[in-house]
């Protein structure tokens, strides 16, 4: 994406998109291009639907990225993430799709996403995806989500 379109969702009353295809991710110029810094978004109440049973699935998502020329606009990201509430897809598909959609929008220097999914059928599923090696010199904190321990 090389054309900048001003954000259309900020300051507006917007209906909740009913699917990721309907949602619109938006970006804004990075005020500090060339500066190495990490941006983190945490979505501790992400939901989607099981594509087989239609039952809700829940995850704690952590998205870390190093911006280049663009930042993701946070209201658009929130609406995009909540659009998965009616979307049927497996954990792996949701997690990797979100990462790839953000990469397509921003063309960041680096991105990683951790999808920490709550147990389904007694098995928690964690999904991790990143674009490559983190930039040298980047302060990269732990994502802060402990492994699932149940009652253990």
From TrEMBL:
GO terms for molecular function: preQ1 synthase activity. Substrate binds at residues 72-74, 91-92. Pfam families: QueF. Keywords: Cytoplasm, NADP, Oxidoreductase, Queuosine biosynthesis. Gene3D superfamilies: 3.30.1130.10. Catalyzes the NADPH-dependent reduction of 7-cyano-7-deazaguanine (preQ0) to 7-aminomethyl-7-deazaguanine (preQ1). Pathway: tRNA modification; tRNA-queuosine biosynthesis. It comes from the Bacteria. This is NADPH-dependent 7-cyano-7-deazaguanine reductase. One of its GO terms (cellular component) is cytoplasm. Its EC number is 1.7.1.13. The active site is at residues 50, 57.
């Amino acid at each position: 994406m090389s054309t900048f379109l001003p954000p259309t969702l900020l300051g507006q009353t917007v209906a909740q998109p009913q699917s990721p295809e309907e949602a619109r991710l938006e970006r804004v110029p990075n005020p500090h291009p060339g500066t190495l810094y990490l941006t983190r978004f945490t979505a501790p109440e992400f939901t989607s639907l099981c594509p087989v049973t239609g039952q809700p699935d829940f995850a704690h998502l952590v998205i870390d990225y190093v911006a280049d020329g663009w930042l993701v606009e946070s209201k658009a990201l929130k609406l995009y993430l909540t659009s998965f509430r009616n979307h049927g897809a497996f954990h792996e598909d949701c997690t990797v799709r979100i990462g790839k959609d953000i990469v397509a929008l921003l063309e960041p220097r680096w991105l990683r996403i951790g999808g920490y999914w709550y147990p389904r059928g007694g098995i928690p599923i964690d999904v991790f995806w990143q674009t490559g090696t983190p930039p040298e010199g980047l302060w990269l904190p732990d994502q802060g989500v402990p492994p699932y321990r149940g009652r253990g």
